[in-house]
Amino acid sequence: MVSVVWKGRSCVLLLLSLPISVLQSGANQSPLFEHQPFFVTWNIPDQVCRRYNISLDTSPFHGVTTPAKANQFLSLFYTDRLGLYPHVDLKRKKLYNGGIPQRGNLKASLTKAKEDINYYIPFNQGLAVIDWEEWRPLWDRNWGTKRIYQTLSVAHISQKNLCFTEEQAIEISKQQFQVAAKSFMSGTLALGRAMRPNYLWGFYLFPNCYNNGWEHPDYTGQCSEKVKRQNDELLWLWESSTALFPSVYLQVGLTLWTALMVRYNIQEALRVSALPRGNATAPVFVYMRPVFADQNKRFLSQVDLVRTIGESAAVGASGAVMWGASTSCEMLSSYLSSTLNPYITNVTLAAQLCSNFLCRGNGRCVRKKSNSNHYLHLNPENFRVMYVQNRYLVLGRPTLTDLKTFNKMFTCQCYKGLNCSPRTIFIKAEGHCKTNFGFRICGCSLSGSHSLWIFHMCVCVHY
């Protein structure tokens, strides 16, 4: 829980006239948490910490969950928790449920998936993430150890018809594999949407930008045109998904290029989410970790958090999911209180402030220049994040300069169906506040003005 403390007793008069741009495109659905255009969800296994009575402060997070439990805000479905997912266990050299999608039983899988959904997901709202990573639905993306699915597919078709040439067997296997993969993924999503329509459904790691190669001096972070074309081929998946869950786990050597890697991953997610929806986008929730993927005892620095959480908020993601943990509960507890929690509090509150100011709470702020380094942060000269009595407090209020900065750097991406017509909004003179039986009342004397509170500031908006 985060609270805002009003600093000072007198009400504030704002005298400004600012043109505020509003995006007509990119409309998004309203946030899952009211007045929270950007939030961070906790999905970290913490059973060991509880067993040793080591407390982890998760108060700034919206939706505190753990991967192992049922009946949570975020339900994470691994391969054995949803349906009968066909895959190969290379370590055990064992095929499960046919091994490849063509040999799977979709009807039986959906029957079991129905039972799984009833068990894991309650009747309310939240996020449903399917984590099926063993194979990818596009044939050409099954490289490395995933080539086993190509090999088994070719063997499967060759056994049925010995007359096929190698080229014919590969081409037919590719078609059958992709059709079956699509059926399993889209069919499972359709079932989930039908049974739990208030949950946002999608697959972990989709979409992927595949923008590795940061060790090269000319690294830009951009997705290649080939990757974009392949992602376009997955239009059926973006049509079936009601949320997208890309991943931006960091490695130590990536640090200097983190912002570029994160930026273009999210931009690609926003791009493909709009393909089936015209000017609307499905919400994007970015998976990240508090530690480096290749060094799980090394936590992300403040700069790393800016380039991951901060970058996600600034480019238009709806939220982030914090997954995985350090091997040390003591270190994680200390990191939360010293670094991660204050930063999450800062970003989520800055996103809320900007939303209230630019969008009247009907949308989220996104960068005017997508490739800039402007972030949704509270001005440290005017705000202070404090931890008091088991909750985080933000002491301060925005100045006219702070609001002008938001207006200069950001624009408004309105929520679907909420006042998205392109126009100029002017904030005019003389908001005034008065006290009435202990309550501060915001009123405007300008004809045709709308009054609103922005962090305890009375502002008149004239249309």
UniProtKB/TrEMBL annotation:
Pfam families: Glyco_hydro_56
Keywords for the protein's UniProt record, in alphabetical order: Disulfide bond, Glycosidase, Hydrolase, Signal
Signal peptide feature range: 1-25
Residues annotated as catalytic: E133 (proton donor)
Catalytic activity annotation: Random hydrolysis of (1->4)-linkages between N-acetyl-beta-D-glucosamine and D-glucuronate residues in hyaluronate
Keyword Hydrolase among UniProt keywords: yes
Enzyme Commission number(s) of this protein: 3.2.1.35
InterPro entries hit by this protein: Aldolase_TIM, GH, Hyaluronidase
Annotated GO biological process: carbohydrate metabolic process; hyaluronan catabolic process
Any one GO MF annotation of this record: hyalurononglucosaminidase activity
Disulfide bonds: C49-C329, C209-C223, C354-C365, C359-C412, C414-C420
GO cellular component: acrosomal vesicle
Glycosylation site positions: N346
EC top class named in words: hydrolase
Family: Belongs to the glycosyl hydrolase 56 family.
Name recorded for this polypeptide: Hyaluronidase
Organism: Labrus bergylta (ballan wrasse)
